[in-house]
Specification:
By secondary structure, the chain is of the alpha+beta class. The protein contains 2 helices and 5 strands, in the order βββαββα. A hairpin with a 2-residue loop joins strand 1 and strand 2. It is about 30% helix and about 35% strand. The chain starts with 5 loop residues before the first strand and ends with a helix. A 3-stranded antiparallel beta sheet has the order 1-2-3, with no helix packed on it. Strands 4-5 form a two-stranded antiparallel sheet.
Length: about 110
């Protein structure tokens, strides 16, 4: 079982700098500070990144030649505390010279259910 880590340092106001276990740094802030994305936005980014890597990997294994792959994550957040997501909608746009629509649909389904 893999263990993933992150260390965060408070920089004043609501600004935090996170350092991932793999050594990358990400600055997060609130709307007033404006020096980085909000943590909840990073959650939407992570959701898109995880499903994107799953789908791209599956399509590669299925020998699908993809020339363009874009993902849009739209997450509706609660208006009151806790400010959790109420709904998340992910849209995948996959293009290629002979992409099999069924293969793409199956790759997205596998990513969502496994």
């Amino acid at each position: 079982m893999a263990v993933k880590t992150a260390e965060l340092r408070h920089q004043g106001g609501m600004r935090f700098v996170a350092r991932t276990g793999s050594g990358f740094e990400i600055t997060m802030d609130n709307e007033a500070g404006g020096s980085g994305p909000r943590p909840i936005e990073m959650l939407a980014v992570a959701i898109g990144g995880c499903t994107g890597m799953d789908v791209a990997s599956i399509l590669e294994k299925k020998r699908q030649e993809v020339s363009r792959y874009a993902i849009r994550v739209e997450a509706v957040q609660r208006d009151a505390h806790p400010y959790a997501f109420k709904r998340v909608e992910i849209t995948h746009v996959v293009e290629g010279p002979a992409v099999d629509v069924e293969a793409v649909a199956r790759a997205i389904e596998l990513s969502a259910t496994r």
